[in-house]
Design goal:
With 386 residues, the chain is mainly α. It has 14 helices and eight strands. The chain has a three-stranded antiparallel sheet. Strands 4-5-8 form a three-stranded antiparallel sheet, with no helix packed on it. A two-stranded antiparallel sheet has the order 6-7. α3 packs across α4, α3 crosses α5 and α12 crosses α13.
Length: 386
Amino acid sequence: MAKKNANGEGTIFKRKDGRFSAQTYITLTDGTPKRICITKKTREEVKQRLLEVQTQEHKAIPFTPKNWTVAEYLDYWMKEINPNRIRETTYDRYETIIRLYIKPSIGKKKLRELGVRDIQLALDNLKRLGKSGDTGRKFLKTLCACLNHAMREEIIFRNVAALAEPPKHTAKPTDIWTVEQSKLFLDVYKYHYLYLYFMLLITYGMRKSEGMGIRWSDIDFENNKIYLRQQVNRIGGSIKARELKTTNSARTLPLLPHIKENMLCCAEQKKIIIPPCDPNRKMTTEGLLCTSSTNTVIDPRNIKRSFDIMAEKAGLPRIKIHALRHTAATILKDLGVPIKDIQLILGHAHISTTMTIYTHGTEKTATDALNALGTVLFNNITQSHC
């Protein structure tokens, strides 16, 4: 005798192939009703999925006609939605994470049936494969952004990626150079074609891409000002000029005498006719201040390789190029420059970023601070006879 369905199960029945199915009605996004059939291996799986569908229907959340897989919706999101909504560098990062990690792990799953456990298992697998916690966090961030859009389109009614537990993050300390090490680097390479570029990064704490993006027309030699208005990045297979990272990144910096002298010397050597200052001109990779040894646009990858080799030959600790930004911030802090001014120099949107990330304590400043404290506490106090 066939088993009678329990109340609320709907029409669950066993198929000839041994699987179980259930039929119910849903409302599509255009308002039309549609009868659907849910098929799973077990009665419990069908019952669970039927309950989810009925819950969505009772909440008046419409269903989309297409039953997307995760991979299909990711492709749609990247091709139709993102191109005009996000920065090119963000698009490139999303594309890499989707292609290498998300699609291979959960791409075949149905979008509506994707659960927290599916994502958690994918994250655990990344860890087993030796991938860093940063990769796992990028996986989760990219998927979360995609599922948020799916919610707005009423394809799903919850973002399961937001419910997954992100990989633990332990911030690694950023190694920086001291004033003496920075001076040594600049002194050793004062005749190198990248000297001016690294001088800008160390002096002003510019981002790598900002230093690459400065044009001769961004320099006001009469009023001694440098205008940061664009950056240069490798995007996909080409090098492009694009907008700066944030609104606060567009800033005006003083043109220091020593840097001005080096710029004018560089222009004379390269026989460059310096154009009138026009920082608001269209973004371009033409007329860049810092170029390769053959006066072409520098490939960001070549800069990294050159920097590593240069640091090693100078006998200096190996650090990341971005750490020069931290180095500049810390030197400014040690010189007593107010944190608000350091924020403006670096172009940070929030002062908390400057305080917690880009200014580092040093042994010398800690020693000086404790010596000062000792002077205040113990000056003119009789020595103990312990």
